[in-house]
Request: fold
Amino acid sequence: MKLAIVGAGLAGRLLAWRLVSHCRELGKPVSVTLCDRQSRDFVGTGLVAAAMVAPYTEAVTTDPLTRELGVTSWHLWRKWLPELEAATGRSVEFNQQGTLVVSHPADLADWQRFQHKAQADTPADAMQYWDAKQLKQQEPELSSVFRQAMYFPEEGVIDNGALYAALDQWFDQCPEVTWLEGLDCGNFPMQPDGSAQSGYLAACETQFDYIFDCRGNDARSDLTNLRSVRGEVLRVEAPEVNLTRAIRLMHPRYPLYIAPRPNHQYVIGATQIESDDTGPATVRSALELLSALYSLHTGFSEARIQSLRVGLRPAFNDNLPRIVHEQQLIRINGLFRHGYLFAPALIDEVIQSIC
Reply:
């Protein structure tokens, strides 16, 4: 098969990797042209993200499909990442210690509503209630501030920086993939004859069996109701903080996560703003993120700010992803702020449909 993938963000990179891997397993020849208008080292949303894989906590406040796709992705990440590590010799940390949901007294009503819905919708083995004693035993540095927590054991956090580095190395040693950087391949409206090639791809001598549109926000001119949702994400280094799990802190305006990384680094996010503005983070957002972080653990007062970045997440009106088949053109889009939660499940579904 001759395939083209337009858009080398998280979805595009994962798709290229898994397509080649799958075809190798089947003994089928394949060539993949991966192109993006940005250079390979561009810091896009996939690198800005907290990279949470949290199917149960996210499903509490969203559609049940979130849990279905998320659980599938959880198992795929657990299978795929060891394969990538073995192929490249690079470690990609996947913290699988679960998620804790906590709240300050002022937000206790929100926590109780969350708990009530979680108990109604979450399988019994996927959620636990921790009292003050259990919290002190399991996450002692939180016990001086919080007296109770909900614990979701089958959730985790991926070190997305390490993931991207490992994928880049894999592509460098993969003869089946041609990566075209800094190349605008144009839009992909369907043509009268049923084809979807335009711009650079239409000018290629190669006739592709399938073209995959993974452009995210760049596909708004071709997809109805696709919009951008701005997120601002803070990264800090905090030597005085030792949290082993992802933390979800009840916040009056948006879901706020603290995602641990190796070497005492933490990613805090994300604001959720209906905007396609790519400008720097606002003072208000910075203050909210920093204040929430300090309220969680006073050790964050001496943390060093590594970055405060902005990312635009593509979303449809229902905030759920879509796979759109248009003959030889397959679009994967609308991953919203759930890129790491949705992408593996969507990509596996696409691969199974064409191979």
